[in-house]
Amino acid sequence: MPDFDYDLITIGAGSGGIRASRLSASLGAKVAVVEESRVGGTCVMRGCVPKKLLVHGAHFAEDFEDAAGFGWSPGKPGFDWPTLIKNKNTELDRLEGIYNRILRENKVTLLDGRGKLVDAHTVEVAGKKYTADKILIATGGWPSMPDIPGIEHVISSNEALDLAELPRRMVIVGGGYIAVEFAGIFNALGVQVTEIIRAGNILRGFDEDVREFLAEEMEKKGVTILRDCVVRSIEKEADGSFSLRLANGENLATDLIMYATGRAPNTRGIGLEEVGVRMNGKGAIEVNEKFETSVPGIYALGDITDRLQLTPVALAEGRVLADNLFGGKTLSMDYADVPTAVFSSPPIGTVGLSEAQAREQYGEVDIYVSRFRPLKHTLSGRDELTFMKLIVDAATDRVLGCHMVGADSAEIVQGLAIALKCRATKAQFDATIGIHPTAAEEFVTLREKRPEHQN
To answer: Could you tell me where the DSSP H helices lie in 112-169?
Structure first.
């Protein structure tokens, strides 16, 4: 047998890479992880965690306003953006320390620097070559920008997490979950936000009712959404502001521009093409159900494979890969009924099929919909509604999709995801006693089908 330095070298210390590496090490493998930036990856350092902390911080603006209806007189609160950013960064430092400790405790070697494939069993890091029986690519994704004049003046979600100060006006280009989440954050903190989307509505791929409902709520809160709109060029003005020239000939002035038009697999410059790893047209690594690439001995998982770009999915993939490679198992990933959330304002929780997907796959479906004012806002006076939707297979009564827009939607839908995994029926939902008074109980008290002519 060849004498390798390691049984496994992982390039990328994000969620999926760390999970695969530490579990492989716990199963007896000698493992090294290569990372050129911070341990923790996109989710912990540049995505889910810091973004959710900013969401919490921004929501206090509404909480202070809502308190008056409950008898509180807090006065006019002050807000200091640098304090929020400083405290957020302190928490990220703490989390990075935890990840480093996890690697040390599992005897995983951390190799600092950019990893580049030399061949199917060799990785070069900072001028030194290391060999391994197996190599895992888990370098995630990175914000992608269109090639238009003036694009050098914009920021991505990475920089939005560390702004030195809040702008007075801001344009966010994009209609995906990152765009709507940051629109909600900055709007709540008093920034005049305009969101520009190429399509007719936000959140392509989500249920149509969810898309329409969230857009309405965002606009009620003060976010301007420009639909069917394309930016042709960007210019910086003498006063430091920016001018966006739109496809319809109009110009839009703003103080800051953030692009959230997608994330591309982070595959450039790491030697994939040179060693023959096959990628698709989007630059994502092609893998089979065992996470094997076109080169024997090289594996890939997480966002770089462009399957489901979700941290819990990458974590699960890492567990499956480690168990299969070093635990003697033959596990496979199940990508059906993966729950997800959008931490917009208000937030979305969703699991299962959209109505359009359900009709395409099952034909006749029953739809149950509810829009209501949450109990909290009967006293706060806030004009914010909650939306819930169940999609049911008419032939079998099985619940195919659960969708919610409103406070605590992610927490509620996580529980419903278990029900969908168990192939629960609408009759079983109906037989479940609700917790009163909660928004969640609405999911088990929906009785009236939406009339067919409204579908």
So the answer is: 157-160
pLDDT tens column, 296-350:
999 999 999 989 999 999 999 999 999 999 999 999 999 999 999 999 999 999 9
Tokens of 408: 């605590």
Residue tagged active-site, from 59, 121, 153, 436: 436
How far does CA 372 lie from the centroid of its chain? 27
Q: Give yes or no for a contact between 10 and 110, defined as CB atoms under 8 angstroms apart.
A: no
Look at residue 66 and tell me whether its pLDDT is greater than 70.
Answer: yes
Q: Is the pLDDT of residue 212 over 80?
A: yes
Q: In what order do the strands lie in the sheet with 224-226?
A: 224-226, 192-196, 169-173, 257-259
- pTM equals 0.96
Residue partners of 93: CB distance under 8 A and separation at least 6: none
Q: Give the pLDDT score at 76.
A: 84
Long-range contacts of 317-320 (CB under 8 A, 24+ apart): 317/16, 317/20, 317/291, 318/15, 318/16, 318/17, 318/18, 318/19, 318/20, 318/21, 318/23, 318/138, 319/19, 319/20, 319/23, 320/291
SS3 53: helix
Q: What is the mean pLDDT of the chain?
A: 96
For 335-376, how does the pLDDT look when each residue is reduced to its tens digit (9 = 90+)?
Answer: 999 999 999 999 999 999 999 999 999 999 999 999 999 999
Q: Closest Cα partner for 262 from 322, 207, 303?
A: 303
Contact (CB, 8 A) for 13 and 313: no
Handedness of CA 446, 447, 448, 454 (dihedral sign): positive
Does 455 score more than 70 pLDDT? no
**Under 8 Å CB-to-CB from 91, ≥6 apart: which residues?**
49, 53
CB neighbour burial string for 86-120, b if at least 16 within 10 angstroms, e if fewer: eebeeebeebbeebbeebeeeebbebeeebbbebb
C-alpha–C-alpha distance, residues 10 and 178, integer Å: 27
Helix, strand, coil shares of the chain, percent, nearest 5, are: 35, 25, 40
**CB contact burial 193-224 (16+ within 10 A = b; e otherwise):** bbbbbbeebbbeebbebbbebbbebbeebebe
Active site residue 436: yes
* SS3 assignment, position 101: helix
Most distant CA pair in the chain, distance: 75
Residue 443: left if φ>0, alpha if ψ -120 to 50, beta else—which one?
A: alpha
For CA atoms 183, 186, 190, 195, the dihedral sign is negative
- Which DSSP state fits 433? P
| List of domains in the chain | 6-143+264-326 (3.50.50.60), 151-261 (3.50.50.60), 340-448 (3.30.390.30)
